[in-house]
Amino acid sequence: MTTLHIQDKSYSAEEIKAGNLQFDDEYLRHTVSFCNHWLNKQETFLFNTSGSTGCPMAIEASREQMLASAKGTIQALGLSDTEHIYLCISTKMIGGAMMLVRAMELGCTITIVHPSSNPIDSLNENHPYTFASFVPMQVFDINHNEEMIKKLNGFSNILLGGAPASDDMIKGLEQLKTKVWQTYGMTETLSHIALRQVGTDKYYKALPGVKLKTDDRNCLCIKAEVTNNQWLLTNDMVNLVEEDQFELLGRMDDVINSGGIKIFTYDVEQCIIEKMNQLEMPHKPLFVCRQKDERFGEIVVVVMLGEPLSDDVVQQMTDHCTGKLGKYAAPKHIYFTREFVKLESGKINKQATLQKVLQNS
After folding, report:
1. Strands (E) located in 127-269
2. Which of 28, 33, 56, 329 makes an SS bond possible with 325, Cβ 3.0 to 4.6 Å?
């Protein structure tokens, strides 16, 4: 029997279904309203895409599609009604909504908290939670926070998705005793359609019932009940190693064409992080993106959070990228900002952040 824990109070499925619960908080009202509609067998639901690669769009999902997604994850992870889910990602986005659906279909207990950059800060090491989903930003400090490691080890299964995770973060997650699963999916696939266990799996493996192929761009195509059994074309370049397994290479959207040379932003990010490690300096959250240029068409730039680094350190980072990736992949500028512009999903709006930085420089 599903139980929701909200603000130190518990509510049964019957109470939620009746629809008489009142909350002053808009986020909690939205969350409980979604659960009420689900328990009352609503047939369709609307979700907005994140807007990370374009304008947000409304996606209509049927109850059958969402059930198929939930059952795929439940089967893949071996979840049961004894789970206690800790929900700390936004229920306004598909990832958080599907955590609610999984809980209600399992009939297990779920605790709902407001999404934040450090949602496990208030937990103790002996917390009762078994299953949670995080975005990389929420576990960014894992390599430098022993307390965070101990708390994460209290879970049995952790989903990690919503944005790419750096190689350095993955190395930190590999030291956990709990099972951490990198997810691959999007709003259009109603959460993830493939999982990769950190430290164990080399490739992403599709959930039961999901079919995969690639198009002439080597981008992934997906066919499953969650796509109404129609082929969904993505902009994610992959190496399809088996009919149900793939290596994720990067998004077509994240390929910068500088002077005719194609550069993956992920490779540049990893190169910058590698240099930070070599210099034994605290990591700064960052992203790599394109900036228009009259000569090259596009150039590679980096935007970092925090106070500016010295010219010497910036030059060392640039030289390191040149040596490993070539001169075209080396950042032409490294900008600094006090805050990133965020989308409603919590993801960084890269172009909006860059434009804000350029306007203030």
Report:
1. 131-134, 157-160, 179-186, 191-197, 204-206, 211-214, 219-223, 232-242, 245-251, 255-258, 261-264
2. 329
